[in-house]
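Work Package 4 report. The design task specified in the project plan requires that, given a folded chain encoded as structure tokens, an amino acid be chosen for each position. We show below one input record used in the internal validation round.
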């Protein structure tokens, strides 16, 4: 099997491993592994201009910067993951007093969330190494993404989800044909059980903060942000500030990895400033960042934003570094602010689930606390569709009245 990357490096001890030497985390200390590309070879083959001529409107347009081969699946949802739209909601910008605001909306992905990016790459890696069954623990989105991407190319998927996962997300898992096991426990317990099962049955494990290829899928959002927004900004102006909701830490870590890849190639003139946003009820990474160290302490997570409700983040160290190494920070917001953010985004046509709206809630707080300035170019990453959790969406709005079928009844309501 030909490898498309140079080696792995442990994020804790900096140990290097050959591509066929390890599969998941560092054998020495359990640290998350970074996939290291052969940057010199890539620089010799490609330029930003040549690189951007790739025609496909999906994450596979970046195949030359991905450590996997295309697994096939042309004409399937696998080749629709990524290349999501970036909007410029001028009314929101005006309300916040900002001159430059973008929202990157991940809901057009095939299973309606950011997690399709990671699952597409993990499915490709599974095919590359001959794995027949892929397993994941998920509160819903990662599992739905794996189930959908696996179904697209006929690979088997097993999903462990907490029994409290939103019904819409469980429905996706079942419709895509995955074997679904609802765990009478929380996400962290489902995570541990999935690893135990993968070891026992020989399944390939997709878990975020465990499988190094998940971050490689998530970095594709950074490549898109670079192509869609950053390249149009003045090189001598302020860097882009990106707001990202954070749970286990793998999305913010993956985005940071994408920008580091671009910097290593010499294609990124300024590193964007990355700001992580967590719910006050699930803030283990924010707590660690604000203490100034990298020792992640678990919390008892309690937030309506199920996709970022995590007791012990599995990619916490890299998530802390993503903010610290880019001049960013962490912000925490209450669930009430998350619900308010759902409503505000909805008023400009963006339907976000709670975890997705958390990033915008963080921006609102950042403006209030002068963490950002009016002339900062800012992008908010909205990671999933509000249709994923309709119950939460209904808490963000006033219920529609029921009226008699008469014009007088309409007049009374109006």
């Amino acid at each position: 099997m030909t490898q498309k990357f140079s080696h792995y490096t442990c994020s804790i001890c900096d140990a290097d491993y050959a591509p066929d030497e390890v599969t998941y985390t560092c054998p020495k200390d359990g640290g998350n592994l970074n996939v290291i590309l052969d940057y010199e070879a890539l620089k010799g083959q490609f330029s930003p201009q040549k690189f951007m001529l790739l025609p496909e409107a999906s994450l596979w347009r970046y195949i030359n910067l991905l450590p996997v081969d295309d697994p096939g699946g042309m004409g399937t949802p696998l080749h629709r993951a990524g290349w999501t739209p970036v909007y410029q909601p001028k009314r929101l910008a005006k309300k916040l007093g900002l001159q430059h605001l973008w929202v990157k909306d991940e809901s057009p992905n095939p299973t309606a969330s950011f997690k399709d990016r990671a699952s597409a790459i993990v499915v490709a890696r599974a095919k590359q190494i001959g794995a027949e069954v892929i397993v994941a623990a998920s509160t819903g989105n990662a599992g739905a993404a794996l189930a959908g991407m696996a179904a697209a190319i006929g690979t088997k998927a097993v999903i462990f989800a907490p029994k409290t996962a939103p019904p819409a997300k469980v429905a996706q898992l079942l419709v895509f044909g995955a074997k679904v096991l609802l765990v009478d426990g929380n996400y962290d317990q489902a995570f541990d059980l999935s690893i135990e099962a993968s070891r026992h049955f020989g399944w390939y494990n997709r878990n975020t903060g465990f499988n190094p290829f998940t971050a490689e899928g998530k970095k594709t959002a950074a490549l898109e942000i670079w192509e869609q927004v950053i390249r149009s900004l003045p090189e001598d102006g302020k860097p882009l500030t990106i707001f990202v909701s954070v749970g286990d830490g793998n999305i913010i870590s993956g985005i940071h990895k994408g920008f580091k890849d671009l910097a290593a190639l010499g294609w990124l003139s300024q590193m964007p400033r990355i700001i992580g946003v967590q719910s006050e009820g699930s803030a283990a990474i924010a707590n660690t960042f604000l203490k100034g160290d990298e020792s992640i302490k678990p919390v008892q997570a309690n937030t309506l934003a199920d996709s970022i409700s995590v007791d012990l983040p599995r990619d916490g160290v890299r998530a802390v570094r993503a903010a610290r190494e880019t001049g960013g920070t962490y912000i925490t917001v209450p669930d009430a602010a998350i619900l308010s953010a759902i409503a505000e985004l909805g008023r400009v046509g963006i339907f976000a689930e709670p975890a997705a709206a958390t990033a915008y809630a963080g921006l609102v707080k950042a403006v209030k606390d002068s963490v950002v300035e009016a002339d900062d170019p800012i992008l908010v990453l909205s990671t999933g569709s509000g249709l994923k959790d309709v119950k939460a969406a209904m808490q963000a709005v006033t219920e529609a009245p029921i009226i008699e079928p008469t014009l007088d009844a309409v007049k009374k309501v109006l």
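The chain has a mean pLDDT of 94. Validation will be extended to a larger panel in the next phase.
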